[in-house]
Amino acid sequence: MGYHTYPVDRADALEDPGRYRYCSREELLAMLEPSVDGVVADLGSGTGFYADDVAPFVDTLYAVDVQSAMHDRYREKGVPEAVEFVTAGVSSLPFGDDHLDGAYSTMTYHEYAPTTVDGRDTEGDDRGSLEELARVIRPGGRLVTVDWSADGDPEIGPPLEQRFGLDEATTQLAAAGFDIELACDRPATIAIVATR
């Protein structure tokens, strides 16, 4: 688990409106509670499918993706004015402390969440991705996570061994300094709202 990327050659699938059955734009906005002067980050933004939905409701939306080729694909379809591209991993975000009002990830937590052995990050990062999020999200800011469930259908989404269960994800977030406001285990996904 952890530190995977979505294949760029399959990026067209990220624009499938069928994705809304796993997290609708209304559900995402309700969990994120964006404000017109807000600064938020889309973690693993890909082609901007959900960034397009959130951008009209904030001042600045950072489309964060480790793959610059995903930003190129996003640019091809057109980018809302509020969107700024950031090519970085979640464990090394180029923001100051408390810079973000919120952040969200849709089906990407399994790509950046830490895989640990005896409390040590197996990838050797100086700072773990969740601790980095706790650093850049202001006190009271929200982190919304919707991802494939380890208990979900193995025919939908990434392999089960790459996924996290609700208890594991909430434990990781709490250990990084987040308070869990909402935690739901759904048929295919988990949904978590955590505040710093």
What key attributes describe this structure?
SAM-dependent_MTases_sf; Rossmann fold; Methyltransf_11; Methyltransferase domain-containing protein; transferase; two-stranded antiparallel sheet; methyltransferase; alpha/beta; 7-stranded mixed sheet; 196 residues
Task: Describe the structure in your own words.
By secondary structure, the chain is α/β, with parallel strands linked by helices. The chain has a single domain, classed as 3-Layer(aba) Sandwich (Rossmann fold), CATH 3.40.50. Helices cover 22% and strands 27% of the residues. The chain contains 6 helices and 9 strands; from the N terminus they run αβαβαββαββαβαββ. The chain has helices spanning 25-32, 51-54, 68-77, 109-112, 129-136, 166-175, and strands at residues 39-43, 60-65, 83-87, 100-106, 116-117, 120-121, 137-148, 179-185, 189-195. A 7-stranded mixed beta sheet has the order 3-2-1-4-7-9-8, sandwiched between helices. The protein has a two-stranded antiparallel ribbon with strand order 5-6. Strand 2, helix 3 and strand 3 (83-87) form a beta-alpha-beta unit. The longest helix has 10 residues, at 68-77. 45% of the residues are buried.
Summing up helix and strand content along with how strands pair, one would put the structural category as: alpha/beta
Mean pLDDT: 90
CATH homologous superfamily caption: Vaccinia Virus protein VP39
CATH architecture: 3-Layer(aba) Sandwich
CATH third-tier fold name = Rossmann fold
* Number of beta strands: 9
Specify the helix fraction band: 10-25%
The termini sit apart by 24 Å
**Element-by-element helix/strand order:** HEHEHEEHEEHEHEE
Number of helices: 6
Low-confidence stretches: 117-126
- What characterizes the major β-sheet? 7 strands, mixed
Domains counted in the coordinates: how many? Answer: 1
- Strand fraction: 25-35%
